[in-house]
Every structure is written in structure tokens, then in C-alpha cells.
Amino acid sequence: MKPPFDEYGTLDRRTVLKHSAAAGALAVGASLAAPFVNARRYRLFAGTSQEYSSRCIDLVTGSLVIDMLSPLAVSRSVQERWGPGLEGMTPQEEQDFRDSEIDVFHIAVGIGGRDFDDQFHNTLVFVSQYNSIVAQRPDLFARIDSAADLAAVHGTGRVGILIGTQTSSHFRTPDDVDVFHGLGQRVSQLTYNSRNMIGNGSTERIDGGISDFGVSIVERMNRVGMAVDVSHCGDRTTLDACELSARPVLFTHSNSRTLSGGHPRTKTDEAIRAMARTGGVMGITGVRMFVRDREPTTIEHYVDHFDHVRDLVGVEHLGVGSDVDLHGYDDMPPDEYEALKSAYKESYAFRDKLDIEGVDHPKRMFDLAEALIRRGYADDHIRGILGGNFQRVLGEIWEA
């Protein structure tokens, strides 16, 4: 029988849930249960003094949790150590994924190339690699293709991999949308930061909209059931997508421009309203310069973005898109860190740090849930933010 505490004195999560449920049963009514349960706090992870309320633990462990932008690893040296089949991943790194309680990772990245054919080939390799990883490691990973897959992955001990890309430059013709959908791609961001044949990125000099070719791509994505993502798109391309798409449009990972201080990679209130009118959902990132343009920048400023979107269009349009792997950017090797920053225009306005303390580690969903509790969010609203809202909208989009 497994003892309730491990060798570090950390309470086992299964035991936490059992004890918190028992505590709730002892209360006479809901008005008494909440303060009684919330008074109990537990340390979930070894090597840290961070404690979480039983309400927070119940919400995270009992919900389908989706991070709509979180690569498995952003560090090149970590990727190389893991190898193409992740055979170099250590048992502790595997456990980090399970302990995070994130059920689904949307692992999209920006994929470049010299021309259409090169971008097609590079994206084909990217998608094939993830299909290979899922096939080789069914003990740890499961590919997410459908609403049924989303509903089934929670509680299995496996990590859901949602295949997407942060550009649609690999679509040489609308028929390529069908090709990649058949290979498992379920989300495609129309552009990265620069212009492509579909539309304009957020840091382009000219704010153009979606091209005639782009219209045909959006129409085909709607037809096959592939989500239209415009997180990195320019303002006009973002609004065009919301006008053109017959299905909900996603901001898988972005922030409010009103609160960010005008960062071009964030979204205007006009764009957020347009997204909401389509029935879409916006995942809030924890990237420092997208959250606030000055110091200090804390988890409370991060949660301000959730409040802003909630007040603007409603909590049903909110989710999480961390835009970081489990461990954050700031712990990357210095040469990789500087190479990452140098790949972007000055308008990205990098500061000394990219991460925000509290949302830069594997247990970040617990810290977010605790912060939302402090702000007075209801349990159902927190469950929606953690994953329920993206689960709903992806189900609508994928029903082709």
C-alpha cells in the first residue's frame, strides 16, 4: 500500500482528493463547506514549500486541462538530448509531464522554408515526427484528433498531443489542407509574424489583410474541420479571418493590447470582440513582454488579462495558451536564449526575462487556478478556463 506521504513529506494527490472530499462531506451545507475545505492546504511537489488549497487541487486534478500552446521543449539542446523518438527523456522529465496535470499540449511551432515546396516538406517532417513519437510512446502520449479524444484523455496518465503549426505557409493549394488534416493536423495559424501568401503577420510593416488565396485556405479549413488560429496575425488579417470563417476563430496564445502597453503581438479590444462573435476562445500567454511593458510584471498582471477578456466578452471565451514549455525560457542555455531573442524584430521589446514567476514551471496550472480563486472566479468558470472552453470550441470546429 502506498503511504500518503512520499520520502520528501509531500502529500500524495490521490490522498489529498480523498481527504478534501471527506472534509466537504462533514460540512452541513455549501456555505460551511467552502471555508472548511479552503482552509486545508497541501504541498504537492517535492523540493518546494509552495502549498495549494484543496479547492485548487480539486479543480486542476478534476478538470480536463488544455494548454493551447506549449511545445514539449523549446531548448535545442534538450531536443537533441531527447532524440527524435524521445528515447533520451529521463524518468523525471516524463513524470514532470504527468505531474503538471496538463492533459493536452498544443505543440505548434513556427516552421520556415525557402519556398512553398520547402515549407511543405519541413512541415511534413514536423508532423511525421510527432506521429512517430505517439506511435513509439503510447505509454506516455496520445494523439488528439477529435472531441472524443479530448473527452477520453483525462485521467489516463497519458499526455495528449494536439498537432498544429504556427504558420500555414505549407499549404501550397487548398488540397494540402486535406493532406495535413489526414496526417493529424487539427489547428493551423494563418501566418507567423511576417507576411505569407495568406495574409500578414503582427510585425509586418504594412498591415494588409487576407488574400484571395488565403480566403480559399480558410474555406477549406472550415470544410475539413481544421481550426483557424490567428494568434500571430496582423490586425487586419485577424479581423478578416473573423469575418470570413464560417467556424469559430481561435487566438490560441495571445494577450490584451490594452494591458500590454501596445505590443504588436497582442490583440486589440476590437479583435477580441470579433473573435468572440465567431464563438472563439482566447488562450492567455505568460510571456512577460506580452503581459506588461514595464516592471514589475507578476502573476497578478498576468491574471489581469483574464479579467479584461472576461469583462469584455465573457468568461466562456477564455482559456490558456502559455506559449512556453513546462520549464520556461529563462533557464535555457545563454547561447540559445540570445539566439532566440535575435530571431525577432526590435518591436518584440525583449527584456532581461521572458518568463513570469509562478507560471514558468510544470505546476503552473495550479498557480493559475489559485490566482483565479483569489479573484473570485466560480468553479465552473475556472474549469472552463483550464480547458473546458477550448474543449467546447474545438468540438464545434472539428465536427466537419
Set down the secondary structure blueprint.
Blueprint: H1 13-26, H2 30-38, E1 41-42, E2 52-53, H3 54-61, E3 66-67, H4 76-82, H5 91-99, E4 104-106, H6 116-136, E5 141-143, H7 147-153, E6 159-162, E7 164-165, H8 174-182, E8 187-189, H9 212-224, E9 227-229, H10 235-244, E10 249-254, H11 257-260, H12 269-277, E11 282-284, H13 288-291, H14 299-313, E12 318-320, H15 334-342, H16 364-374, H17 379-398
Parallel strand pairs: 3-4, 4-6, 5-6, 7-8, 8-9, 9-10, 10-11, 11-12
Antiparallel strand pairs: 1-2
Helix pairs in contact: 1-2, 1-3, 3-16, 7-17, 8-9, 10-12
Mean pLDDT: 90
Tally of DSSP helical segments: 17
Counting structural domains, the number is 2
Hey, roughly how much beta strand do the residues contain? 5-15%
CATH superfamily of the largest domain: Metal-dependent hydrolases
- Principal-axes shape call: globular
Provide the spatial order of strands within the biggest beta sheet. Answer: 7-8-9-10-11-12
Rg, rounded, reads 21 Å
Please describe the biggest sheet, giving its number of strands, its sense, and whether it closes into a barrel: 6 strands, parallel
State the share of residues found in helices, binned by percent.
40-55%
Which CATH-level-2 architecture of the largest domain?
A: Alpha-Beta Barrel
Give the class-level CATH name of the largest domain.
Alpha Beta
The oligomeric state is single chain
For the termini, the CA-CA separation is 47 Å
**CATH overall fold name of the largest domain:** TIM Barrel
Tally of extended strands? Answer: 12
Ranges with pLDDT <50 over ≥5 residues?
1-38
Order of helices and strands: HHEEHEHHEHEHEEHEHEHEHHEHHEHHH
